[in-house]
């Protein structure tokens, strides 16, 4: 009876979601027909964001993940990280790959890897939903290089935002995974007595593909997935244009200004844009010239925690073939957004007392743009593809050392 009720609920949810998407699509099409020039410019803006920032940030992680899973490297890493992940988040060690790649590659890398782990039966539904909630993080390259350096002209602010973003994400993850799943639901490795090398060889035999076949499949599936993500970004860019042209943004800004003053009115436009798309939303926050620096930073922190409905749609697309639910993911993103914004405001005075930050926001000025700013806006994240892979290796090595310490401590305690 319960299963029947759940099926009815899911069917009703999908029907409503389909109706909303259909109405949105009709409105977007009508707007494109009525305003072709503006729609073309907004779609080009979305394409630029995808090509400069999203594609180079995600492509190497998508390909490496496919290859690493086929070669059994992910399984071996899981065996090494198992003590750390089970102690901290009650997740199997193989989840460490999703956490590390999601932290460095940015959204939606974590969702892609989590979906693959769930499809292969390496995590349960409960574990997959927890992992999906805590692995959806922004890339440090995006926060520090693009937002802080290129958009705001203040790199130190990027470090501040990145620390709070990851700290609040880990805090939400720790709280989120505290309820222990039933013992029968836990996927514990029956190969715990085997070495990571033995586990890797077994995974290779189970996969059975040659390296050439594996490489071709990895490139093909990764590029296909990125094309889908690009389509979502372009669609939401056009949707933001629709909202602007229909006067919804101006009306809400006027209402907010009449209720809470001019600051609220200035925050309304970037708030709405950030609700839909994180990259363009971050730039909108950097251009909110009527806001103090603290509230500007808090808005960006909230945006990074939320991720944007564009990213949410990408996560839905990547997890479509799994039983991972969207509701827990959306709730985790909302909590992450709120906590990050609160921490940004609460710690702003200590941050500025150290000599960082400024009383007024720093905006991107074409006449005084530094070389770093020019590179970030002109080339996006393409120059950082190789360094990001190095950051991934360092992060995995750090996780491994922590897991080794926990394993040694546990062995000494049980003697």
Automatic annotation (TrEMBL):
Keyword NADP assigned: no
Highest rank taxon of the organism: Bacteria
TM stretches of this protein: 17-35, 55-81, 130-151, 157-176, 223-243, 330-348, 388-409
Record keyword Flavoprotein present: no
Keywords: Membrane, Transmembrane, Transmembrane helix
The protein's name: Sporulation protein
Phylogenetic placement of the source organism: Bacteria, Bacillati, Bacillota, Bacilli, Bacillales
